[in-house]
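ok here's the first one, seq then struct tokens
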Amino acid sequence: MSHTHWDREWYHTAARFRQRLVALLDAVLGRQHTGETFLLDGQAITLLDYLAVRPEREAEIGARLQAGTLEAGPWYVLADNLIPSGEAILRNLEAGHRVMRGLGAAPPPVLYCPDTFGHPAALPSIAAGYGFGTAIVWRGAGGAAHPASDAFRWHAADGASVATHHLPPDGYEYGSALPVEADAAAARWQRMYSVLTARNRTGVLLLLNGADHHALQPDIIDAVAALRDAAVADAVVQRASLTAFADRFVAACRDVALPVVQGELRDSYGYTWTLGGTLGTRAQQKRRNALLERALLRDVEPWLALSWLHHATARARGIASDGTVTLAQLPALLNIAWQELLETHPHDTLCGCSIDHVARAMDARQESVQSQAWELRRAALNLALPHDVVTARLRPISLDTPQALVVRNRAATARGGIAELRLIETLADVAVGPGSTLAAPVDARSDAPPPQVSGVLVQPLDARVGHQRRESPQHYPDNDLVRVHRVVAWVPEVPALGLRVFASAPGDEADTDLPNTVPAVRIVESATAVMLDNERLRVTVCDGRVDIEQGARRLESALSIESFADLGDSYTPSLRGEPERLTCVETVVRHRGPLRAAVRLTWESVDRDIRVQTTLILDAAADLLRCDVSGMNRRRNHRLQLKWRTGFSDPVTVADAAFGPVERHVARAPVDSREAVVPTMPMHRWVTQAQLGDCVTLFADGLAEAESSPGALSITLLRAIGELSRAALPERPGHAGWPSPTPDAQSLGRFRARVGCMLHADDADRLGMVSRAADALLVPLCGETWRDLDPASTTTQIAGPQLHGAALEASAVTLAQRGDGIILRAVNLSAAVVQGHWQLPHDGPWMVTRCRLDETPLDSPVRRDARVAFTAGPREIVTLHLTVARLA
């Protein structure tokens, strides 16, 4: 099978590689050989890159794809699949299919993953959800725990499986540059045949003719003829497409008993390089990616669904005559934001193993997506409330104007309690243009008390003065000087995936007491220690030592920060010597309750080239200790970890991953392995150690590397390295990539993270408790003042879908990609059958269709009212398509 493996950016930028891509595809399209096929890797973005330069060839590209002589997809980009969330993996597939549909074609029926640095345990479920009967993988399989076979049946936890072809040790380039001379072809065939047949189970061999950025071999017809002659006694050699191979492979798998593989594929030790050490490289970019994914999934898509559920005018997707953004534009704009974020997901990009120019381009894309997400959220909320920005722009605002506080609940369960709010006061109008320097002075102090919200207890945190604009498509912006107060508040219950609107105005009397059932959090100081206590959790800080008590559970000296010398490269750590433990040099009380107590610890290295501040935060009624990390790194060539002691000598480790938890073990490499095992692991939202009925769970907001060792859980804050690849590493002799200096990857400068720690029981509700705690930390109740929203004319509560069922976790609430309606997706985190239901905000009536992940119906539509019941099998991903029932 002729192909190219196209790393879109790596040791060159995407723009530079695109120049070569255009020449490559021009050459492919210029050939007129009957039946000749070419695989443009497993990603569709290469088609867009080519058509950006050659738009006049779109019809020809479409015709070639439809005829099967050119293949691309199913992915939008060949992404890393261990770092992104499960929903981001689905968005990648959907974007790839969208490109192919736009060209009138479909991708090959193969989940093609030729160079990903490992694969999630849920990938067979994803394959089944898109109708793929075949997967092709290389790295991640072949280790000591896997069968010595080029074909296996890969099972997911929900029972889905996919026939998987495993590439040979040299991967997708094994059949590159085939010779045309008879003697050379015979010698090459003997070498290849011995390797391929040693592991073959099906009688079908796949020889990939191509390599990184390789164009189609010009004399491939003669080379295949020579190979056919050389192999005549052993095999029938045919040129084939990826689709043709998949058909033959699936048919052959039916006739043999394939070995079974379960779980993640993260072990190629002794077979080929696994390259599992990239998880901590350029750690802040990985963290920002997780924040952006979460922003789109939890703070944009649900509000689009909310507007669809409540407003027939929004469902109509009409174009607004005044230029306001509506559902006529928002789905396409959301897709564009996702596509730009996905452009940062190729494994060389997101894993951090590219040159600095590529990393800077990733920074720019992430900044762009952040800006788009903010505007998408605002537009979606305007529709959901609803809020007419054109009329509101005409509403005069002053310090005395009643204003609305809009609180958002980004979880699929109703929640009240602690909310993080931005209360905004309008101080003065700020003119722009000639004469604007003559504005009268105003009180711009940042230490003024915050506005009060009627019936809500507020605890100030800090404030700043700045500018804020009110905008509409019919007016110039109204620029105002404002004072923004950051506060925590105790709010009444907010509907699931919904909104609650409160009135706020100067002069309102503030609540000063918490409900009787909620103890206030308090700070107790002595000459030697500071204690935070909310009657559920007690944290004591003394001379840099942090002790945590939760019921009968106690952790002593729970927190430390360690730096290890790391002489590795972007792919592989190479740790040296003993770790340096940073010293706590200062302890300062930041907040004293009654809603939030906080103590800031400052840590420094001996040479004072690493400085880290960890702010321990305990909220009223919280079961989780939050730790906000900010630091300054001036040290090169080291790894910095935040380490939490667990006290477990022989724990079981379970971690969050794509579409549900997985149990994790450190792989064991054979003695002849060319690569040492990297003991760290991917980190999504949480990782748990459990032993003898007790658990310690560590949460993080996007740092992608964790480590579980006897007695401790650690998170990598950063890896400071200065080379893309080094050849002389004892852990991995030889270059893994093209050597290039990467001074930006030294991660000099500021870094941040939000983590949390929870002590709890290993009981039946463990997974549900951890899921709720993750939401409390990562998507807390939040809100801000809408200065031009009139609270008197706004609905006070707008409810979204609420998920019910033990161990069920909401995965997506979003607009359908194919046709009208919304998608409700839930994951059963447990190994038991669960009866669940979505409670909708009103009776509709609705038509509900159970469907695959790609929205292909599995059952006939069923008419439902506000209660949409379903059964979720063990670890099943349940996707429901909801539309409005038509009246008879």
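and now the second one, same deal
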Amino acid sequence: MSRSVVVHGHFYQPPREQPWLEAVQIQDSAAPYHDWNERVTAESYAPNTAARRVDDAGRILDIVNNFEKISFDVGPTLFAWLARHRPDVCAKIIEADWTSVRAHGGHGNAIAQAYNHLIMPLASRRDKVTQVRWGIEDFRARFGRDPEGLWLPETAVDEETLAVLAEAGIRFTVLAPHQARRVRPHGSEEWQEPADGVDPRRPYRWQGPGGESLALFFYDHGLSHGIAFGSLLERSEHLVAAIQGAFVTDRDEAQLVHCATDGESYGHHRRFGEMALAAAIHRFEAETPGRLTNYAAFLAAHPPTHDVEIRERTSWSCAHGVERWRADCGCRIRGDWQQRWRAPLREALDWLRDRLDAFFEARAAVLLKDPWAARDAYIDVVLDKSPGRVEAFFAGQQRVPLDAAARVEARRLLELQRNRMLMYTSCGWFFDELSGLEPVQILRYAAMALRYLEELGGDRLEDALLARLEAAPSNVPDLRDGGEIWRRLVRPCAVERERVIAHYAITNLVQQHPPDARIYAYRVERLDEVRETSDGTALSIARVRVGSEMTGEACDAAVALIHYGGPDFSCGVRAPAEPAAYDAMKTELLRRFARFSVADLVRGLDEQFRGQLYSLTHLFLDERRQVLERVIAAVLERHEETYRGIWDENRKLMHYLRQVDAPIPEALALVARHVLEERIQAELARMEAAIPARAFELVTEAQALGLTLDLMPARFVMHRAVQRALAAVEATPAPERVAEAVALVTGAQEFGVRFGTWATQNRFFGLWQSRPEAREALEPLAAALGFALQR
């Protein structure tokens, strides 16, 4: 009797990029992280690539990559972000899949996912095909092999979706048990509706009306629910016992016990969930070796012996089928909020889709052999916008050879379609409120699609769309409805080319860009530049060539910037700009600057750039805050001497107050904390191989005064110092070098300064594994980093 186990994790984040910039802007709700992708990566995705197994005292026994042992899918929109921002995590996930391929006879743990997580039963067949093809091609590009399975967003399913999967060469997918309607053994004519639900311990064969077939796995509901919402991740013993208890003891045929949950259960939804999973896997493999497998390997060894019919338009996260994504069905998080906005939102976007698709089909047919086949193939360009890839795409798709302008038009049409699909991302309907991050995000994709439509000369549909969105009521009285949300949260996100150039000019003055710079989704090439400075006023004049990475459109522009000091910037942009006009403008502004009259220079800027002038407020949010931090730091620096004087004059008084058990006035305590923090950070900034003794003295003094210091800004300095020390140990694991590293680690711990403990532990563990002959010398550092390793 064969018994096997599969643990599946569905790892996904919706596309969060600002559509005009193709980058995730700072999201304060994710603090202390930059955005939610970064936060969930730190709490789940990264920890699962290096999960700790610990003893009862919390000391690390082993570090393992959970992705090597579990079945998983990673959404393409998440993988794209990881590839840009956390390539280390990306590489570990891919490496784990190839480890599983070797371990399971060529069958890997990873399966694909429909591209941007739209609800497939609510999509047109054409969109279903594109979503599956894009998901498959993204998988091939990431993992270097063909996927055998594909995860359906929210496991939402209908017959047409399964047919599309089968036609694309997918062998299986995973559904919730309540999505099975009837089953029967192969060869039987009699269908049965199981009273206790479908048996999840075997795969089933689904057959479509056209002869298509697909294997379906129905996960164990009790086990999955216990992981996601119950107590099974509190202790690894609970999870192992639940898995073992799910087998049927008196069955001779092969059995598969399997669970499926959001991958974020392991670490993000459940803190330390990745550690519970790692411990459970270790315990399970020790007690029952060889049973842990993946879906593809089990399917190859045990093909279906039963047929199944599905329940149409059902999902794993809505008790009402797929109504959560189009109606106020009652599925929600907050009981006091309504979701009557869901239906008008769906109807408004469907209305927009129909008009965009008709325009795309008619217009693209002039340029491309088959507009919809070209959309399917466009994933090649989405994944790689290099000139060679773009050239190959047009070579295969263009109706006739296209010049540069026609190619820009074709790419605009295809970007219109990409954003049109992104506006259906399921998270836009999943949560409770229309003004939340996710619904606003999909509306921004709709706005981007409208922008492309208008640039291509299509109808102006925004007012008609807003009229439909006004039927979608918000739970926030101040925002009222979808129309007001669009006006306040969507429309202001639109970005003109001139603003990109102004952003470039202002940030270039603060910290100079390279001659060919990437500014979000644009390339800005500096063709000419001149700078002048006098009495605290700076003038910068430049001619640049700005090009869109998304469409290939490019033009030359002239930009002039005056910086009066502090946060005061005034910037004019002219695009397009001819060289002769630029030269005349440059000559005139330099002539005025030479007169040393700021007022005359300002008048000149107004005359040269009639219309809007740009300021610091027009910088994109991340850089706006960075520039303001520099400005504020410069302002504060002027007051540092005052703070130091207050500290020096009152230091003895504060110590006396502590001695006589009297409170230190808060004003003096604030100054003391600030001065001591600054001095400690200055000492740490100068350290090389060891923490300066003076830094310890200052920390001791702060403790004597009862002051709690915030040394968080020193974490980067400390991280670099620890990494240098660890690199020295890697080069020569001699006792004296180990001692230096130990001193840095313990000193940082004493100061309460973060130094990247997780990454340092990972690096050290790699050293421990690769240098067994040096383990005796490495033991003090292992102990300092919290390990309890066996030589």
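notes on #2: The radius of gyration is 30 Å. The chain has a mean pLDDT of 95.
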